[in-house]
Amino acid sequence: MGPLHGPITRRVFLHGLGVAGGAGAVLAAMEILDLVAPAAEYRVPFDPPRTGDFSLRGRANDSTVLILGAGIAGLTAAYELEKAGYRCEIVEARSRPGGRNWTIRAGTTDTDLDGVTQTARFGDGLYMNAGPARIPQHHTTIDYCRELGVPIEPFVNANASSYYFNRAQRDASGPLTDKPIRHRAAKADINGYLSELLAKAVNQGALSDELSRDDAEAVVELLRQIGALGANDRYLGSDRGGYHDPPSAGPRPGTVTDRYRLSDLLAARLGYYFPFELEWDQAMMMFEPVGGMDRIPFALAAKIKGPIRYGTEVRSITVADDAVRVIVSDSSGGRGTEISADYCICSIPPMVLSKIPNNLPARTKTDIATLQPMHTGKLGLQFRRRFWEEDEQIFGGITDTNTEIGTIWYPSSGYLTKRGILIGVYNYHEDAEAFDALTPAQREARAIEVGRAVHGDAYRKEFETSFSAQWARVRYSEGGWVLWPDRNGPIRAVYERLLVPQGRLYFAGDHLSYVTSWQHGAFESARLVVMQLHERVLAGASA
Amino acid sequence: MTRRWALGVAAVVVGFALMAALFVLRPRGGLSTRPVSSVPELLSAPAGVPGAGLVLAPDGLGPVTFGEKEADVLATLIELAGDPVEDSTEDCRGTGGVVRWVRWANLTIAVEDGVFNGYISGIHFPPDSVEMTIMTVDGVRLRAAVEKLRETYGDRLTWLGEDTTFGTPVDAFGIDGFDVGHPGPTGLGGYVEGGREDGHVITFLGGQPCVDNGP
């Protein structure tokens, strides 16, 4: 007899379905919303180490620091520590700096965890940023671009001319599915209808308990502006939604597009995309380095005086009382070398670190293994003609979809030139997991199929070549980033324990910040560790 | 004499310049190294994974079986899965006793009368911890497609009726209950979301946790 034979009790049923936890989940999520760190707490106060920190104490620093990983966190740690005279060395498994900051150009070759090798065949001067691709203006990343002399240019994260494209699936339905709807049209109509409804409620006195007479009038006046309301405070459409026939010279006043029906807009679930553009880290203005995101790690690497051993895998980590000893080798496992240092900063992603033999306490091993990867991927599609600019007047920005490809990103540079690379896939979670299991050619085919539904035949006819990076399948990353559960819950203890050094070993990376997945988190985490280590060394020097 | 003097000064200047250049361009870093004769192999699976070693079996969770003492079971599970994130009790109307529910991420065990007597493992749980990957003893995991259930259990897979204490059919929620017909008094079953053809497993249940705590 099985556990479900006989009456199913409320407790077992609710537990089984997770409903008991569901309310808690929602509450916890709401708490997160309230607990988003204000801007003032967004950065760790940072006092960069200086040579004077040691010379003023009448002794030179001879502390050595071995840094595991030449991603943003590892490079930043070396760059900042060297300012005070630490002798640093970086070990990096890849043949380049940057880690997940990865810009793919013609000739870039990569073999994934499944043994599939891709070589990018992009045109000269063209590239895709497979990892981070945009920088909010308040991120520390901008400060480093300034300090390192990396030029930046605007990144278009929102464009009224790009599309919403929802298939009739995943709760979306109705006549506005399976067709591209311009952002401007959906926003104009939804803002218009919602403004009309709220104005109607206020005018009918439905909110008289909440609003004084003066405030009610002011609210309605505001709604008329927000919604472009017409006579009798009704939404009748507006030029905000766009034109069938745009205004021009002579007898061309322009014809405004018809508004969509509210129920169709709601059924298609287009409004759920709107908040993205208001998010703390996604709101314009945003930037990207000129020439590719990897200009940042390459600039950092160029400033670092100590050696960076590329193509070198970490094979074991031993933390001793007097030093940290790390055995490294080339990727074939040959030519083993043990490197010893006074301190070690490990910025290896936890998904990779958990498979490196070490003598860390069992609790630390469990904490590291607890962290799970975010499944996500990007696929760049090169087209011989920028049809999105020439035919559809889309210059930068993002088309959102409810399909397996996630979003389509239009390039924010190279406008009016001939060729261009779109990000034809940027997906997450289950969609990305499904893509993980596909070959690059299969991913390309799926991307073109959806893109063709959005942009028409040009998407197939003008296509030239592609490159796919599904991060859970990328060697030495094994995930886009760490997917933390709510850190206000019990998992917080794991987070806090990993912030504490294990003897002479420190952990750093975006996963050890509240800005996971952003380079800002990696910069901030590295700076925090640099200060912790430097204070410790200074205290020892003073003793 | 003047020429010799000039050459001497020039030599000193060049010497200083060379020393300065060597100082500025001196190699940095280069930490202490030594060759090692053997290179450790990377692990084939992550070390310390919470829940590793546990399986969803009809008689327990692998290392712990139904009927074992509460303290022993908890000690073993804490060792394998870390500290629990939830621990609560409630009255069990059917037995008149008290059932203790202890949860680790997506795994909850039930303890009654001081012994371990059931578990629930589902994909829905509060966002307070990371889901553990625990498979059934037959290798089926949460989120598996119904097809996988059929492939694994064949004729042993049975769909359950609509007998609930709610008086409402379970499938009114779009959920189907199943049992996989393991022999013995406890068994193994669960819930599927998305239908009996195309759905996927959202919950496994084992044992006989408090069967009547009332609506």
How much is the radius of gyration of chain B in Å?
Answer: 32 Å
Architecture per CATH nomenclature, i.e. the level-2 architecture of the largest domain in chain A:
3-Layer(bba) Sandwich
What is the overall number of helices of chain B? 4
Report the mean per-residue pLDDT of chain B as an integer.
Answer: 82
Oligomer: heterodimer
Termini gap of chain A: 70 Å
Distance between the termini of chain B: 114 Å
Q: Which parts of chain B are unreliable, with pLDDT below 50 for 5 consecutive residues or more?
A: 163-171
Strand content of chain B: 25-35%
Q: What is the number of strand segments of chain A?
A: 24
Order of helices and strands of chain B: HEHEEEEHEEEHE
Spatial ordering of strands, largest sheet of chain B: 2-3-4-5-9-8-7-6
Characterize the overall form of chain A. Answer: globular
- Count structural domains of chain A: 3
Shape of chain B: elongated
Q: How can the largest sheet of chain A be summarized?
A: 5 strands, parallel
CATH class type of the largest domain in chain A: Alpha Beta
Characterise the protein shown here:
The complex is a heterodimer of chains A (543) and B (215). Chain A is built from 17 helices and 24 strands. Chain A is an alpha+beta fold and 543 residues long. Chain A has a five-stranded parallel β-sheet, covered by helices on one side. In chain A, strands 10-9-20-21 form a four-stranded mixed β-sheet. In chain A, strands 7-13-8 form a three-stranded antiparallel β-sheet, covered by helices on one side. In chain A, strand 16 and strand 17 form a beta hairpin. Chain B contains four helices and nine strands. In chain B, a hairpin with a 2-residue loop joins strand 4 and strand 5. About 4% of the residues of chain B have low confidence. Classes of the chains: A alpha+beta (543), B alpha+beta (215). At the A-B interface, helix 1, helix 2, strand 2, strand 15 and strand 17 of A face strand 1, strand 5, strand 7, strand 8 and strand 9 of B. Strand 17 of chain A pairs antiparallel with strand 1 of chain B.
